[in-house]
Specification:
Chain A is of the alpha+beta class. Chain A has helices at residues 29-36, 40-57, 85-109, 114-118, 123-127, 175-188, 204-213, 237-247, 285-288, 304-309, 327-330, 333-341, 358-366, 392-404; strands at residues 60-64, 69-73, 76-84, 149-156, 162-168, 225-228, 250-252, 257-259, 265-269, 272-275, 278-281, 314-316, 353-354, 371-375, 385-386, 409-413, 419-424, 428-437, 439-442, 446-448, 453-457, 471-479. Chain B is built from 14 helices and no strands. The chains are: A alpha+beta, B mainly alpha.
């Protein structure tokens, strides 16, 4: 028998399924009992079945190895992560609140700037942000929404409290894997579903499609929606293709689009040029339009930003919305919630030092060994210094970088991310750290995915969950709370 | 039916062509091998005609300057696993895979997976195709997978514009390959050699087999295999899925469900007119081999024109007219 829950210990962390005394967390009983009832052989079979399903379903992400693209199979752990629906409702409420405030902040930034004038935040934090776009000033996107798709990363600390680690507002990815994980789980562990009322997740493509259609500039029944991808070499191309297919939208590259003299966007089709109403762009701002931003961009469409400014096409997310994705700006989100919504934040931030402020910078430089130092505007886990695991040289390099450009860095205390039982090498089940990325859609309405993408650091002790750096994923089950009353039999 | 992106149309069309080409090239190799085994050793028939058919004489000489004899091993490698030859099976299947990867959102979701498997199978088995004993299985395996894929798509894909464009590529390539297969034996090898007359029928049997047409020929003609009969059957029998005329009719049917079809449709009609007006059986008569070859050339030229018209109509959409209201 591979699992003995009496011996399972997540030292110093909150475990999602197993309480400190080795007993099941509310709701986890049937899952733990099922796993404990599996023989070594059965466990191996389930894992093999998952690998087979992932290959058969063609779930991949792309890595570039310097010579050619390689489609790697998506790393997946067969033990699901459980969240009780009463807790989830509260988290979802917190996310909706947060994203409403973020959108109000972005809209305010490009219009009256009340927050910049009236809050404690120095205006230059925004105006000097790498993600601030002067040419977005005065633009009125539909519903006043700029960040239509937001992926916020949530972590749970050692006391069990959920925090928001960061908000990804530019081109967040991962949602297709959330959907695919459920498909794999249904194939591999159908018997587990019997114990739980697992809330379905597959309404997402429909919600996304409705969200995008609600942005269409022309009043008509069937707006033409396109997903703009950088192309097959992008690591998230699988997801771009997946979402386009599920929404029956066109998957376009920059070369497929053209902006006419009438400032409308057209796609080149076998019928000639056909007007596009909404573009779900998975290309960074700066590559969107060589005329507006980087002139060397081959991925973009000349004149696209002009067409957007003229209100002839909707872009999701809107250019310039990355200003709220900046980790220095992040520290003010609780203030934004109070300022714009007159509400108290439901989900707290992680305590964060702004290196741009001298007293905080001095503290960071003096305590680098105990902190995590992050660039304000990177994603994918790049450029991060994890103090306790760093070498002296790394800390010196980092300190130099912080002094040279303090605005570009923040620091956070070392978090003890929560863990969950994970099937590791040797057919054993051990605790591994994880986070959660739910996705929030904002258009005419604000919707949250049911759960989200749980990313798990497969290396022992690691807290790096990015798939490009050894991270895997788990299916995330939002379960009916009554399941917690049923104990393992 | 909503309009298909030009880039997607182009990729889809080439996916159809490359799948067909990979399969047909394999059949050419198989059938040539079988034919050689049936013929007397003294006949000057070798492997080189396959190079000529695929139009790769120059490249072959460049890559294998020392193989004056055009040996079986070299020619087979050149046509199957040699990635330096754009006409090699492995290159056709790699191109099919690349195109499928770029349009995966428009096809049933397992499609790319199947094509990927097909490619990986070809990559691992084709190097063995230089060996006589292993060749048959490797090439059969590819044909079988291509045909399963085509069946899968036919049964599971929405028969919309994407489908018609895929079929367009499929049938145009098939028409082209059928003429190339016929060209293999357009050379009049038996002229004046009455002692070899018994082998003439073997030669045409092999041609029919390359087009999966041997059994249909027997069922349809119920007589001996003759040059005239085989030519008539492969060019003009509309019940035969791979006949030249049938392929053109399929191209026409696909075009009818596409927009902006005037010019491609007209060229297609002209190609049909030409084949209908030609007594192909007459081209089989002894001494007419040059004429047969010329006729095949003109068929291939028509296919080339048709391809160019399709590319112009669907793949190269001029951006200049954008926004200036018609």
């Amino acid at each position: 028998m591979p699992v003995n829950w009496g011996e399972y210990r997540a030292e110093g962390c909150w475990d999602e399924l197993v309480a400190a005394n080795g007993g099941a967390r509310p709701g986890a009983g049937p899952l733990l009992a099922t796993l404990a009832g599996l023989t070594d052989e059965q466990m191996r079979e389930h894992r093999a079945a998952a690998e087979l399903a992932i290959r058969a379903m063609g779930i991949t992400f792309t890595v570039y190895d310097g010579e050619a693209d390689i489609d790697r199979e998506w790393p997946f752990d067969i033990v699901p992560r459980l969240i009780r629906s009463d807790e989830w409702r509260q988290i979802a409420r917190g996310l909706r609140q947060r994203v409403r405030a973020l959108n109000a902040f972005i809209n305010d930034t490009y219009h009256s700037r009340r927050f910049l004038r009236e809050s404690d935040m120095p205006a230059e934090y925004v105006l000097n942000s790498r993600e601030y776009r002067q040419r977005c000033v005065g633009i009125d996107p539909p519903h006043g929404v700029w960040a239509h798709v937001c992926g916020s990363d949530l972590v749970r600390d050692e006391t069990g409290k959920i925090h928001v680690l960061e908000d990804n507002l530019r081109v967040p990815s991962g949602v297709s894997y959330m959907l695919e994980n459920r498909g794999v789980m249904k194939r591999v562990f159908p018997e587990l579903f019997e114990h739980y009322g697992v809330h379905p997740v597959d309404d997402y493509p429909g919600l996304l499609s409705a969200c995008l259609r609600s942005l269409a500039p022309r009043a008509q029944t069937a707006p033409r929606v396109a997903v703009l991808t950088p192309g097959i070499h992008n690591s998230a191309y699988f997801e771009h293709a997946y979402l386009a297919r599920e929404m029956a939208a066109d998957l376009v590259e920059g070369q497929d689009l053209v902006v006419g003299d009438d400032d409308c966007v057209y796609m080149k089709t076998v019928e000639g040029l056909v007007r596009v109403d909404v573009i779900y762009r998975r290309v960074d701002d700066t590559f969107l339009d060589p005329k507006a931003f980087r002139p060397d961009s081959l991925l973009g469409v000349a004149g696209l930003v002009r067409a957007w400014q003229a209100g002839n096409v909707a872009l999701a997310n809107a250019p310039g919305c990355g200003v709220a994705d900046d980790k220095v700006i992040y520290t003010y989100v609780p203030d934004m919630i109070r300022f714009f919504l007159a509400e108290e934040p439901i989900l707290p931030n992680v305590p964060t030092y702004r290196c741009v402020e001298k007293s905080q910078r001095d503290h960071v430089l003096a305590n680098m060994r105990d902190l995590v130092v992050k660039p304000a505007n990177e994603s994918g886990g790049y450029g991060i210094l994890i103090g306790p695991q760093s070498t002296r040289k790394e800390r010196e390099d980092c300190a130099r970088a912080v002094r040279a450009n303090p605005r570009n860095f923040i620091a956070q205390p070392m978090l003890t991310l929560s863990t969950a039982p994970t099937l590791v090498a040797g057919n054993a089940i051990e605790p591994r750290h994880l986070d959660l990325r739910p996705f929030v859609l904002s258009g005419e309405r604000v919707e949250v995915t049911t759960g989200g993408l749980t990313r798990v650091a497969l290396r022992k002790g690691s807290t790096v969950v990015n798939s490009s750096q050894g991270g895997g994923s788990k299916d995330t089950w939002v379960i009916e709370s009554w399941a917690s009353d049923r104990e393992a039999r | 039916m909503s309009a298909v992106l030009s880039r997607v149309a182009q990729r889809t069309y080439w996916l159809g062509r490359y799948l067909e080409r990979g399969d047909a090239t394999g059949r050419l190799v198989t059938v040539n091998a079988n034919l050689l085994m049936d013929l007397p050793v003294r006949l000057p028939l070798g492997w080189y005609p396959l190079i000529a058919i695929t139009g790769a004489e120059g490249l072959f000489r460049e890559l294998y300057p020392h193989d004056a004899a055009q040996s079986e091993r070299t020619v087979c490698r050149f046509l199957t696993s040699d990635a330096r030859n754009p006409g090699a099976i492995i290159r056709s299947l790699a191109a099919a895979r690349d195109n499928a990867r770029n349009v995966r959102e428009t096809m049933p979701r397992s499609t790319f997976e199947y094509i990927n498997e097909l490619y990986l199978y070809a990559r691992s088995t084709l190097p063995a195709a230089t060996s006589r004993t292993l060749r048959g299985e490797a090439l059969d395996g590819i044909s079988r997978r291509v045909q399963q894929l085509e069946g899968f798509l036919s049964q599971n894909m929405l028969h919309d514009m994407h489908w018609e464009i895929l079929r367009l590529g499929n049938h145009l390539e098939r028409a082209d390959m059928t003429t190339r297969i016929l060209d293999v034996r357009s050379a009049d090898l038996f002229a004046g050699r009455h002692d070899l007359a018994p082998f003439e029928d073997i030669q045409w049997r092999s041609v029919l087999r390359s087009a999966y047409a041997m059994q249909p020929y027997n069922a349809s003609v119920r007589g001996p295999v003759t040059a005239a009969g085989a030519l008539e059957f492969l060019f003009k029998d509309e019940r035969l899925p791979r006949s030249y005329l049938r392929c053109l009719r399929s191209v026409r049917r696909s075009l009818l469900s596409l927009p902006r079809r005037q010019r491609p449709l007209r060229l297609c009609a002209e190609a049909v007119g030409m084949i209908e007006a030609t007594d192909v059986g007459r081209l089989a008569l002894a001494g007419q081999s040059a004429e047969l070859h010329a006729f095949i050339d003109s068929c291939q030229a028509r296919i080339g024109e048709l391809h160019a018209a399709i590319a112009r109509a669907y793949f190269d959409v001029p951006a200049a007219r954008a926004g200036s209201k018609a």
